[in-house]
Amino acid sequence: MLFVKSCAYNIDTGRLEMKDIFGKQYWIDVYEVEDECADNMYQRSSLDYLLYNEPVKYVNLLLEGKLRDYVHENPIYMEN
């Protein structure tokens, strides 16, 4: 189990950078995750929302294998 101490998205590298309570660093390539989980731009928007506003929730959903379910259940739709 990973206990996330800090987590932030680095827009320059396209990675989600994390540090656990023991000081070990981890990186997630966000573009690869989006390619696997999202089928359209609305689902990618849901991922982007999590990434920028709730990165720890993003990591937890990813590690639990529930990120794809979240994206398909909570897409952000744009109004005309």
The helix count comes to 4
Extract low-pLDDT stretches.
none
Largest sheet: 3 strands, antiparallel
Task: Give the overall shape.
Answer: globular
Strand content bin:
15-25%
> What is the CA-CA span between the terminal residues?
43 Å
Verbal overview:
This protein has 80 residues and is α+β, with helices and mostly antiparallel strands. The protein has one domain (4-73). The protein is 48% helix and 22% strand. The protein contains 4 helices and 3 strands. The chain has helices at 30-37, 41-53, 55-64, 67-73, and strands at residues 4-10, 15-20, 25-29. It has a 3-stranded antiparallel β-sheet. Helix 2 (41-53) packs across helix 3. The longest helix is centred in the middle third of the chain and has 13 residues, at 41-53. It is globular. The relative contact order is 0.18.
Topology:
Blueprint: E1 4-10, E2 15-20, E3 25-29, H1 30-37, H2 41-53, H3 55-64, H4 67-73
Antiparallel strand pairs: 1-2, 2-3
Helix pairs in contact: 2-3
Keywords for this entry:
single chain, 80 residues, three-stranded antiparallel sheet, alpha+beta
Could you write a compact summary of the structure shown?
The chain contains four helices and three strands.
